[in-house]
Design a protein that fits this description.
3 domains; Alpha-Beta Plaits; nine-stranded antiparallel beta sheet; 10% strand; 49% helix; single chain; alpha+beta; 9 strands
């Protein structure tokens, strides 16, 4: 019940300052193109803080109650994961060879679901309980990880054997750990075989959990998605660094290690200096924080490798593609045409309705695409609407900034939403249960605040 409000809270908090979220920076840069002056650091605070506080109150009092209650009964269900999908193999000299699945279940007194059976190139989905098992069969099984050791002992089946040189990972003394695949992980879209998890990273993939989906592929064929929860065996001494390099976050046992006091003070000092130079107007946001990043590397607080990994290259590529699209909307008259379509309503409706329409359109786009890309597309449209009405562009640009940060209806609208989907056990529909009333609340609150703080006629 807590993870979705936590994710939504991170989006709400970003509305309050220029550097809180990428849409604010993009809208500020676009205003600078229009008026030769960007929004300042705390220009977003009056509207953003009020919206954020209202959102927090809603989530605290009502929002969490809208989420369906799913009672936790096990370690896996603690993270709202229905079942892990793991792969078991029938070893040589297996005493039950030739028995059917149903006979094996009756003998051990346990009913375990078999999603599919693979033998060589043959695959049997939803196999019959009377199918005989033979040496070399690979069973894809959905199971609670707490029940896995008992099942292995009772059936004599084994986890898929590892490659030569990684036998030590099969030892029961090697701890099991859970990790969630982060949105910016380079594991997304790739398989364990592609990544060479065993031979290169020393990780043994035991099982995969994907909320709302029963996986039927063999483990090495599963293409990872953001939010997948992996059950892994790993050498205890260095798995944290390995997972960080892969873009995964370990769950449960975290044992965070704080840096030395002087390093924390130095890092805080660099950050405060960057923010101070921005607030004082000495440097623009981009220059201030690029300089801070360079200072972090030069002082040894961050390695070059860590800095490189921290760059969200997919977002940069997306923005590099969308900025020309936004420019093309201006130069080709596309933004003006869209704006004119909205302004034609002005004869029948007052301007605040158009402001609400811009805010609503930005909200809708941010639910299905990156929020920075939403700001790039919507900023020229908002400015054209204001120009056609003959009013200040500021309230319309602020509406874009607020709307682009309201990705509450889908798990794909923002990385925070995606990140909590697996560990929180949420389904796609859970997001609009909470997100729809939250967006309606923000719409009703933000429009009058925008008109009051950023009047149409300055």
């Amino acid at each position: 019940l807590l993870l979705m409000p936590l994710a939504f809270g991170s989006l709400l908090g970003g509305m309050t300052t220029l550097i809180g979220t990428p849409p604010n920076i993009i809208v500020g840069a676009y205003r600078e193109r229009l008026t030769q002056e960007s929004f300042h650091m705390f220009d977003f605070a009056p509207v953003g803080l009020a919206v954020a506080l209202a959102g927090v109150v809603f989530l605290s009092l009502l929002g969490w109650r809208l989420l369906p209650r799913r009672e936790p009964a096990s370690r896996a269900e603690l993270f709202r994961i229905d079942h892990y999908t793991t792969e078991l193999v029938v070893p040589e000299d297996w005493p039950h060879a030739g028995k059917s699945l149903e006979a094996l279940r009756q003998e051990i007194g346990t009913d375990f679901p078999v999603v599919s059976i693979h033998h060589g190139d043959r695959r049997t989905l939803a196999p019959s309980g009377y199918r005989p098992l033979s040496v070399g069969d690979h069973l894809v099984v959905g199971i609670d990880p707490q029940d896995l050791p008992d099942l292995l002992e009772a059936t004599g089946l084994a986890l898929e054997p590892v490659k030569p040189g990684a036998d030590e990972l099969q030892s029961p003394e090697v701890p099991l750990l859970e990790a969630v695949v982060l949105p910016d992980s380079h594991m997304v879209g790739r398989t364990a075989a592609n990544l060479k998890l065993r031979s290169r990273h020393g990780l043994n993939l035991v099982a995969v959990a994907r909320q709302g989906t029963r996986l039927g592929q063999r483990l090495n064929e599963v293409r990872f998605r953001s939010g997948d929860v992996l059950l892994l065996q790993a050498p205890e001494e260095d798995y944290r660094d390995t997972l960080a390099g892969l873009g995964c976050l370990p769950l449960a046992e975290r044992d965070l290690r704080l840096a030395g006091r002087w390093r924390m003070v130095l890092a805080l000092g660099i950050f405060v200096a960057a923010v101070g130079s921005l607030v004082a107007g000495w440097l623009p946001a981009a220059s201030a924080f690029v300089a801070a990043a360079v200072a972090m590397v030069v002082t040894g607080l961050v390695t070059i490798e860590d800095a490189y990994r921290a760059v969200e290259w997919p977002v940069i590529v997306l923005l590099a593609a969308m900025i020309p699209v936004g420019g093309a909307l201006e130069t080709t008259g596309g933004a003006a045409a869209i704006a004119q379509g909205l302004v034609q309503l002005a004869d029948q409706v007052p301007p605040f309705v158009l402001l609400a329409a811009v805010l609503l359109l930005a909200m809708g786009l941010s639910d299905v695409m990156n929020n920075a890309a939403t700001a790039v597309i919507m900023a020229p449209i908002a400015a054209e609407v204001a120009g056609a009405l003959g009013v200040s562009a500021d309230p319309f640009l602020m509406a874009v900034a607020v709307g682009a940060s309201c990705a509450f209806l889908t798990p794909i609208g923002h990385q925070s939403n995606t990140l909590v989907m697996g560990p929180g056990g949420y389904r796609f529909g859970d997001y609009w249960r909470v997100g729809l009333p939250l967006e309606i609340l923000i719409l009703l609150l933000a429009v009058p605040l925008l008109l009051w703080i950023w009047p149409l006629q300055p």
